Amino acid sequence: MNITMIGTGYVGLVTGTCFSEFGHHVICVDKIDEKIDKLRSGHIPIYEPGLKPLVQKNVEEGRLKFTTDLAASVPGADAVFIAVGTPASRRGDGYADLSYIYEAAGELAPYLEGYTVIVDKSTVPVGTARQVERIIKENNAQADFDVASNPEFLREGAAINDFMRPDRVVIGVSSKRAEKVLRDIYKPLYLIETPIVCTTIETAELTKYAANAFLAIKISFINEIANVCEVVDADITALAKAIGMDKRIGPKFLHPGPGYGGSCFPKDTMALMRIVQEYGENVRLVEAAVEVNAAQKARMVKKIRDMLGGSEAGKTIAFLGLTFKPETDDMRESPSISIIPALMEKGARIKAHDPKGMEEAKKYLPSGVEYVANSYEACDHADAVVLMTEWNQYRALDLEKVKKLLNEPVFIDLRNVYDPKTMKELGFRYTSVGRK
Questions:
Q1: Do the beta carbons of residue 59 and residue 43 sit within 8 Å?
Q2: Which of 205, 221, 288, 404 has its CA 20 to 30 A from that of 294?
Q3: Which residues belong to the active site?
């Protein structure tokens, strides 16, 4: 089938590339000339394992193209996916900013030819598809089209596998014609018996928010229990393993840490809260999860401060990892962008390393952060080391070397990577999250 993907950000680029791998002909459209030029030359603007070779393969085989020419890309498409950004509102009130969605809808409308399904791939509030439909009709009253919702459930760092082997595909439609087009697009997944949940547009729109809110609640829950463990001298690792064995609960997202971040959970929980308020309802569990997450980041600042004797003034702190999770260069809402500035404001000097995120980090962190080439350079003459992101290369550090490099053997493990008993036997003053 012929697919046009509007937007070459994380969702648009991954989705368009994977559709081309399915055998469809995909044109990815973006307004930014520089971005398209880089994609055409083989430069991938985001770090996602496996994405670059997949893009190169499908470009070479003629199924994947990049352009800024919307007028030439929409006619003849069986489906046009809108995958532009929906950032938190510029007003700072938590509402999703839908201006890019509506702009894309108005701009594509005049070029529609023949029956076309317009698919909202971006994460959008309930009612967005109906507004997209209205905008297209206003700009092209003769257009033969349907609008559908097809939310993405891609995990950064595992997006290719998530797309190729998803737990489910959710499609929200209002006609059988639209349903058929989307089922044909996802037909390659029939071979692995992927469930396709076909529902109303409004249900599909709400599903993504509900899924992310539930996972955010789960993370905030285990972080609160970890804090209780520290007070009563319990072990969160054993506790999480025990409750995760309950099939009703499951083991995923039961890993305590400095709080959730990224492009989805913070933005989507806030947007969901605003959506339900418009209808006179509330989501108290989600509100509590957001509050717990903010408090957890502040708690990590105190944990670091306490390990430095009550004050970080004049101290050098090594940070290993800056991104919100491993296998991504995404810094959006990473705990590090709350924790590091708080320490610097009280006089700390920061030396930081991240395998993929340092260039992005420069956009979010204060200018005084010193970025270094490797983890050991970060530790050299530091007064403490903070393991912030659990990249694989930090899981097997030469701890004797780390200890020798540090001014003081202070190790603050915010991801519970190392064993407390072993660390203390090695002579470290060690702390983690929810463990003694």
A1: no
A2: 205
A3: 264
> Which residue type occupies 86?
T
Q: Cβ contacts of residue 331 below 8 Å, gap of 6+?
A: 322, 323, 324, 337, 357, 360, 361, 363, 364
Sign of the alpha-carbon dihedral angle for 69, 71, 74, 75: negative
What residue type is 238 in one-letter code?
A
Tens of each residue's pLDDT in the chain, 436 residues = 999 999 999 999 999 999 999 999 999 999 999 999 999 999 999 999 999 999 999 999 999 999 999 999 999 999 999 999 887 655 566 778 899 999 999 999 999 999 999 999 988 989 999 999 999 999 999 999 999 999 999 999 999 999 999 999 999 999 999 999 999 999 999 888 999 999 999 999 999 999 999 999 999 999 999 999 999 999 999 999 999 999 999 999 999 999 999 988 999 999 999 889 989 999 999 999 999 999 999 999 999 999 999 999 999 999 999 999 999 999 999 999 999 999 999 999 999 999 999 999 999 999 999 999 999 999 999 999 999 999 999 999 999 999 999 999 999 999 999 999 999 999 999 999 999 8
- The 3-class SS string of 211-273 reads HHHHHHHHHHHHHHHHHHHHHHCCCHHHHHHHHHCCCCCCCCCCCCCCCCCCCCHHHHHHHHH
Domains and CATH numbers, the chain: 2-199 (3.40.50.720), 214-431 (3.40.50.720)
Q: What is the pTM assigned to this prediction?
A: 0.92
End-to-end CA gap in the chain: 57
- Check residue 378 and report its DSSP letter: H
> H helices within 23-152, ranges in order?
33-40, 51-60, 70-73, 99-108, 128-139
- Annotate 3-45 with DSSP letters as a single string: EEEE--SHHHHHHHHHHHHHT-EEEEE-S-HHHHHHHHTT--S
Nearest Cα residue to 182 out of 46, 255, 264, 80: 80
CA quadruple 62, 68, 69, 75: dihedral sign:
positive
